[in-house]
Amino acid sequence: MTLDTTMRPGALSVIPNRRTLFWLFVGGFLGLMAWEIWARLITSWILGGPLEPAELVISLVRTWTGYELARLPAEAAHYAIGIFGYPILYFIVSRSLRNWALALDIGVWSIFTVFLAALSLAGQLTGGIALFWAIVTGVTATRFLNPNSLVADCLSWGSFTWFNALGIMAPLAGLPFLLVAWGGGLSFMSYVGHVIFGFIAALVFELKAGQQR
Questions:
Q1: What are the phi and psi torsion angles at 184 (to 5°)?
Q2: Alpha-carbon distances, residue 21 vs 31, 32, 54, 94, 202 (angstroms)
Q3: Is the pLDDT confidence value at 2 over 90?
């Protein structure tokens, strides 16, 4: 039995039912709990401090409105995005775009590669960042070896959530692209955390409520 995660365009003409939404949000919750363990415990142990998605929210609000958002609503926004926002976006993307996962893989890997090539030309590429690129490349390349397309697609979604957070939202918040300018440690730990989050969120949903071929 296999699951179809590349539905035909136009599938969203059917509004997701309550069961679909329930498993989307359960997947988001479980993925976010795994992220919290990675971000607040494991990352703190490795880097000496946690990942701070709430600070990204605060920076976004400050940059675009000048308002200094308090920590509590920033944390609430982080949880809302993880449990509800990303899962809904996953449903829209996976159910409306053909070959969406391959397109995300190509896009994320290509942009990351071009960015690091520019760093290399500027003499700013470090061995650690190069190793980071090799890991991202290896994870992305598993798509061509993985016999399970569902697993490959869920990994693609996790990789995209990392790029969305640090490649799109971070620059919009006035922070360095992918946070690589800060040494790469935070970016790498964020990459792993987002892959874990996105993979679990998408996989739980697809296994429990995804449509069969």
A1: 100, -20
A2: 15, 16, 25, 14, 12
A3: no
Report d(CA 101, CA 143) in Å as an integer.
Answer: 10
| Residue 14 confidence (pLDDT) | 59
212 beta partners? 3
Q: What is the mean pLDDT of residues 164-170?
A: 98
Burial class of residue 28 in the structure, from the number of CB atoms within 10 Å of its CB (0-12 exposed, 13-18 middle, 19+ buried): buried
CA 63 – CA 41 distance, rounded (Å): 29
Domain boundaries, the chain: 17-209
Please report the pLDDT score of residue 9 as a whole number.
Answer: 45
Q: Is 206 in contact with 23 (CB distance < 8 Å)? A: no
Task: Give me the numbers of helices (H) and strands (E) for the chain, helices first please.
Answer: 10, 0
Note the helical H segments in 37-183: 43-47, 53-65, 71-80, 86-96, 100-121, 127-141, 149-163, 170-172
Q: For residues 128 and 188, what is the distance between their CA atoms, to the nearest angstrom?
A: 10
- Which tens digit of pLDDT belongs to each residue from 169-186? 999 999 999 999 999 999
Contact 80, 121 (CB under 8 A): no
DSSP state of 192: H
Cross-strand partners of 3: 212
